Amino acid sequence: MTSPELARAASLIRSIPDVPKPGIVFRDVMPLLADARAFAAVIEAMAAPFAGRFDAVAGLEARGFLFAGAIAQATGTGLVPVRKAGRLPRPAARRDYTIEYGEATIEVQDDLPPGARVLIADDVLATGGTVEAACHVLREVGCRVVGATVLFAIPELCGRERIGDIELATVFEG
User: Fold this and answer.
1) Which residues form the Phosphoribosyltransferase domain (predicted)?
2) Count of domains observed in the chain
3) pLDDT of 99-136, one tens digit each?
4) Taking a C-beta distance cutoff of 8 angstroms, is the pair 71, 57 a contact?
5) Does any domain span residue 108?
């Protein structure tokens, strides 16, 4: 992976104002996903800081699934979906939390063995609410969270502070 590849990937992320509501700037990663080389570069960058330290990747609904699945495939590890409430057939842990534009609930199943080392993956870290809630439900089902990796962090929303001592890797910030 080279700097030019990541610079090109960054240029494919679009900022859309007032989505999903006024005052929110939505980061549209779909053009990046459509470009195979850019997508491969960011997957490598997201996985590299945690190389050899995780058994599975927890993808946060919904766009986190895309990055987590690709990281799991690239590293030969498992995939654990962390879903919105009511979408899993046998949820084992549940957590309510606040996000940038409201409230939400996530759930996870207990499909990994106790002590499994899990890397959380998502597209954007905003307030940190989703990552914080994911840490809680994963630990509740016996997993050991080794860190979180995100494509894009928005520093002014203080997500890094909210997740505390969780090791965080970001590809882009701003």
Assistant:
1) 46-165
2) 1
3) 877 899 999 999 999 999 999 999 999 999 999 999 99
4) yes
5) yes
Name the residue range of residue 75's domain. Answer: 52-173
Active site (annotated) includes residue 5: no
Burial string for 21-34 (b: 16+ CB within 10 Å, else e) reads eeeeeebebeebbe
Q: State the pLDDT at residue 30.
A: 96
Is there a catalytic annotation at residue 140?
Answer: no
Q: Which is catalytic among the residues 63, 83, 95, 160?
A: 63
Q: How far is CA 114 from the centre of its chain?
A: 22
Of 27, 83, 100, 132, which residue is the catalytic one? Answer: 100
The CA distance from 81 to 120, in Å, is: 10
What pLDDT digit, counting tens, does each position of 1-42 carry? 568 999 999 999 999 999 988 988 899 999 999 999 999 999
